[in-house]
Amino acid sequence: MDALEITQKLISYPTITPKECGIFEYIKSLFPHFKTLECGENGVKNLFLYRIFNPQKEHIKEKHAKENVKPLHFSFAGHIDVVPPGDNWQSDPFKPVIKEGFLYGRGAQDMKGGVGAFLSASLNFNPKTPFLLSILLTSDEEGPGIFGTKLMLEKLKEKDLLPHMAIVAEPTCEKILGDSIKIGRRGSINGKLILKGIQGHVAYPKKCQNPIDTLASVLPLISGVNLDNGDEYFDPSKLVITNLHAGLGANNVTPASVEMIFNARHSLKTTKESLKEYLEKVLKDLPHALELESSSSPFITASHSKLTSVLKENILKTCHATPLLNTKGGTSDARFFSAHGIEVVEFGVINDRIHAIDERVSLKELELLEKVFLGVLEGLSEA
């Protein structure tokens, strides 16, 4: 089965987060020689398939036993859940349609196309050396993600089954397949700031202390400010205000307080502690309350790592493109792999229609992505 055929089947399951809809049974049927582990909570389901290739060779067994060396464990990872399709599609979002060189359907790009490509590559992989190949899938990436990939990796750690390397098949490319590899992601810090004032009548400003005026005086030091200078792979960390609220809704009463909600997407150079230190310095003489919560930590995989190098080689060979290594975009499940010390990168199809009406993926992309993934498997197994 090729990537297109598998992706068509995957799209036909209406797996809106966290519904799994029986899709794992279909995927398991493709891999009868793989062992399976499943876990989940709160309606979330996770599937882990794995197979040790060539364990029967006695001389290799003896060598590994003597040197206490395990075969390389590589994992493909992804999610089978999708966001709600919405209205005004040209066709049923869960009935895949091929039209003018594209496959249409919810999840075509994000990320059933990527999953279909690595499932097909895994089916066609036949290494000559010891190699542990696994596939990790979750039904909760688009949602909170608490009981998805994170939970499965914790279970794998308990069973000593954590992979050494992983590719998450997120749709990373911008204009052509092969133009971008995510070698890391920025962290995310959520914050709430309350500036306090004295409520009163607008006609008697000397008896009031308007916290909106107070906030305005320091806003240039907060809104959109760069918290560091970034580096080769990370943009400067930036604080972005997402909501402001103050007052009772009356036009003659000044507010007692103003509340500001914000988020900081940050590199390795900025932490929750350094952000707090900066804001406390800006607000030091003002009556305020500050809350910060880190929802994800930044990470990066070395640009010269074996995984990155093999992936780049196969992209150049198959797609005739030189990928840009970057950390742009939001958070992803790759962060959970990194937290366990797993070498992880993200690579997948073009992302111009993700979460959009009439989501689609190029048939040529699916074909090329499958070849890239198979090339990566072969390259790692021969290393």
UniProtKB/TrEMBL annotation:
Name the UniProt key words of this record, in alphabetical order: Amino-acid biosynthesis, Cobalt, Diaminopimelate biosynthesis, Hydrolase, Lysine biosynthesis, Metal-binding, Zinc
> Ranges for the Peptidase M20 dimerisation domain?
183-286
**Reaction(s) the record says it catalyses:** N-succinyl-(2S,6S)-2,6-diaminopimelate + H2O = (2S,6S)-2,6-diaminopimelate + succinate
Which one Pfam family would you cite for this protein?
Peptidase_M20
Q: Which cofactor does it need?
A: Zn(2+)
Q: Per its UniProt record, what NCBIfam families does this chain match?
A: dapE_proteo, PRK13009.1
State the family named in the UniProt similarity comment for this chain.
Belongs to the peptidase M20A family. DapE subfamily.
Tell me what this protein is called.
Answer: Succinyl-diaminopimelate desuccinylase
Protein's organism:
Helicobacter pylori (Campylobacter pylori)
